[in-house]
Amino acid sequence: MELIIIRHAVAEEREDFKKKGLEDHQRPLTLKGRKKMQKVCMQLRDFLKEVDIIVSSPLVRARQTAEIISQIYFETKIVEAPELVPQSPPPAFLKWLRTQSRNCRRIVVVGHEPHLSAFASYMLTGKEHSFIDLKKSGIIGLELESFAHAEAGGAQLLYAVPPRFLID
After folding, report:
1. Which of 121, 119, 124, 122 is nearest to 109 (CA)?
2. What is the C-alpha to C-alpha distance for residues 81 and 96, in angstroms, rounded to an integer?
3. pLDDT of the residue at 135
4. Among the four residues 31, 52, 105, 163, which has the most C-beta atoms within 10 Å?
5. What distances in angstroms separate CA 1 from CA 32, 81, 102, 108, 121, one per listed residue?
6. What is the pTM of this model?
7. CATH fourth-level superfamily of 2-165
8. What would the 3-class secondary structure string for the chain be?
């Protein structure tokens, strides 16, 4: 089983958005961020031909990133998981993964830092302390024996790719 972890694309600046009087969870992607993510996804599609499901944080910038990925992967279904918000502990998403993904072979997860790198580190080492630096639009691929029986420390790193390696 393969778990593809993708950090959301470039969003509006936090401080500029805050000046508009809006909440951070509503912060959208920039046009530049959208275009960059589309390029990343086109390259990703060259070596990952299909995915079973896309799981997204409910925050706007992650959902918008998931929608871009879904378009590249022929309208693959997107589901939201509150366990992918930035403050969520890694074991919470592991529990979600075990119960919600039984019939999947390849899952794309879209979320935020520091949660995603902490989750990837947790899956690789069993420790929640992150040793990974995941850039916006960056990708980490993990291999697991089974989603239903996934264990912290039981994953193997397949790849960790910053976006600059995928686009011109």
Report:
1. 119
2. 8
3. 93
4. 163
5. 32, 19, 10, 11, 17
6. 0.94
7. Phosphoglycerate mutase-like (3.40.50.1240)
8. CEEEEEECCCECCHHHHHHCCCCHHHCCECHHHHHHHHHHHHHHHHHCCCCCEEEECCCHHHHHHHHHHHHHCCCCCEEECHHHCCCCCHHHHHHHHHHHCCCCCEEEEEECCCHHHHHHHHHHHCCCCCCCCCCCCCEEEEECCCCCCCCCCCCEEEEEECHHHCCC
Cis upstream peptide for 162 (omega within 30°): no
**The pair of three-digit structure tokens given for residue 110, joined into one six-digit string:** 């879209």
**Locate tokens 């799981």: which residue?**
55
- CA–CA dist 23, 17 (Å, integer): 8
Q: Which amino acid is at 101?
A: S
